[in-house]
Amino acid sequence: NEKFKCYDPRNKQTSFVYRHLANDEKKDLETLDKRFEVIAPFERMDTSICVIFIQFSGRVPDECVCASEREKNRKMNRELVDHGVKHHGSSFVTTAEQDGMIAKITTEDVMLHKYTNQLFEKKLKETEEVYGITVC
Fold this sequence. Notes:
The chain contains 6 helices and no strands. It is mainly α. It is globular, with a radius of gyration of 19 Å.
């Protein structure tokens, strides 16, 4: 509500990144692609950090190449850090009613996530082709 400046939970990611989508996939993808050199979904954080580093430095760290020993050691060390503890956020189960309410307030965020995945896959493939590597 504008009058009372109340918190509005609708499409928070979209409003932060892009204001409002145009509801035109081609136009939205073009706008996001022009605005961001690299845009990636949160669940691809490790890979996106590598792509961002490579894009801006022109250098490929060993940890970013899937076949490298350093990358294998990094994965092994990461597995040791969590001590087998399960993250509670991943085990929380929502009800159908909660899912419905979430869906109503995230329609643009869902589309933004889809577009972000598409643009990141494109940038990842470009990076891998240019440098002749497979990014982890």
